[in-house]
Design a protein that fits this description.
single chain; about 160 residues; alpha+beta; Alpha-Beta Plaits; four-stranded antiparallel sheet; three-stranded antiparallel sheet
């Protein structure tokens, strides 16, 4: 079992053994009524939602980006891999340090809850839906603490299988 550093926000579980034993493992992991992998995914989602609540981050787009588990059987081994393909999933899982984002000439975003003095700072500011659109050559971004939501599901799965 591992949370993969090779791919963004993915988890893989592998088991080796004879064919009939692998059939039983596959049924337990992904094939029965309450498959254990989906329970582990629920644990990951709970961990991610808790992290989002603590840090005031919107995490539902990441939850919704779940890639359903894929089962790969090769001889005497079965591997189950699942993950989240939202571009922010990796950063919410592993965290990120403070950094600079440089535009490809400029960065543009809508500044929700902008201060009333926005037009003093940026006189040519456009408005979209009532909020100003601002343009920068670069921005300084605060880092993100690591949530380890992928690992939370893997650890839960490990404990269930050891019980």
């Amino acid at each position: 079992m591992s949370a993969s550093d090779d791919e963004p926000a993915t988890a893989t579980f592998s088991v080796e053994g004879p064919g009939p034993a692998l059939d039983a493992v596959e049924r337990q992991l992904v094939g029965k009524r309450r498959p254990i992998v989906f329970q582990a995914i629920r644990v990951s989602h709970g961990s991610l939602r808790s992290y989002g609540s603590r840090n005031e981050y919107a995490v539902e787009p990441i939850v919704e980006s779940l890639m359903l588990p894929e089962v790969d059987r090769d001889g005497s081994e079965i591997s189950v891999t699942w993950g989240w393909d939202h571009e922010a999933a990796e950063y919410f899982d592993r965290g990120a340090s403070d950094h600079t984002v440089n535009g490809d000439s400029v960065i543009s975003f809508i500044w929700q809850d902008a201060p009333s003095s926005i037009h003093d700072m940026f006189p040519d500011t456009e408005r979209e839906g009532g909020d100003p659109r601002v343009f920068f050559q670069s921005v300084e971004v605060s880092g993100l603490p690591a949530s380890r939501f992928v690992l939370a599901g893997i650890e839960w799965l490990r404990q269930e299988l050891e019980a």
